[in-house]
Amino acid sequence: MSDDASNQARQEIAFCEQVLAKGGASVLTETLKGIDQPEGWTKYPLGEVFDPATGAHWFYHSHSTIPGEHGHFHTFLRPNGPKGPIHHLVAIGVDPHGRALRLFTVNQWVVDDDWLGAQNTIALVERFDVHMPQPNYLVNRWLTGTIVAHGSTIAALIYERDQVLASHAPSKGGDARQDRALEVTSQHRLL
Predict the structure, then answer these.
(1) Residue from 111, 127, 130 nearest 50 by CA
(2) 3-38 pLDDT per residue, tens
(3) What is the pLDDT of residue 64?
C-alpha cells in the first residue's frame, strides 16, 4: 500500500466515524442495529455481508475474553464469487464503542477457510473493498478503510501467521492448522 492510499484510508475511517457519531451511532451499533442482546458466537449481520463485485465478505461476532474488547470483525475474500473458495484475511477487534483495538490472524480451524499461504493471501488483501448499502454503507467503508490503512501491518501479520504455524508442533501431532490449542496466530494492538 502506498502512503497516499494509507493516508486517504485513514481520512475515510475518520469521516465514517464522525458521520456515525453525529447520529449517536458507531460501526458497532450499526452492525448490531435491531439486536437488543447480541448472542455470543452468532454472526452479525444475520446473513453476513458479501460484495459480489469485489468478492469482499465479512461478519461480526463476539465471544472475546480480551479485556475491553466487545468482539471482532472477520474479513474474507471470495475471489471466485459466493460459491467459490473463501480466504480469511484479518480480524479487527473493537471496543464497546466500535473503536478498533487490534488486528489479528487466526488459525485455519477457527474460520474453516480455504487455506492460502502468505504471499497469495496478501495479494487478496488489496482486493478487499465493500461497496454495499447493507448493513450500513459507512460501516462497509470503515472496514475497507481499516484494511487499506493498515495494509502493511496486515501483510506482516499474515507472514507471522505462517511462521508461527511452520514452527508450531501440535501436542497430539497432526496438522498445525487444525490444532485447537492454537487460535490466534499473530496480532497487533492499535489502541
Answers:
(1) 130
(2) 899 999 999 999 999 999 999 999 999 999 999 888
(3) 66
152 DSSP assignment:
H
Separation of alpha carbons 84 and 78, rounded Å: 6
What pLDDT does 120 receive? 98
Q: 72: alpha, beta or left, given left = phi > 0 and alpha = psi -120 to 50?
A: beta
Nine-digit cell at 88?
480469511
Q: What is residue 133's three-state secondary structure? A: coil
Residue with cell 514452527: 167
The secondary structure of residue 39, as a DSSP letter, is P
Give the residues across from 59 on adjacent strands. 74
Helix 118-125, helix 151-167: angle, nearest 10: 160
Q: Do residues 91 and 106 touch, judged by C-beta distance below 8 A? A: yes
Residue 136's contacts (CB-CB under 8 Å, 6 or more residues apart) are 27, 30, 31, 33
Q: What pLDDT was estimated at residue 104? A: 98
- What single-letter DSSP state applies at residue 103? E
181 Cβ neighbours under 8 A, 6+ residues apart: 170, 171
Q: What is the pLDDT of residues 89-101, one digit of tens each?
A: 999 999 999 999 9
Q: Are 186 and 161 in contact (CB under 8 A)?
A: yes
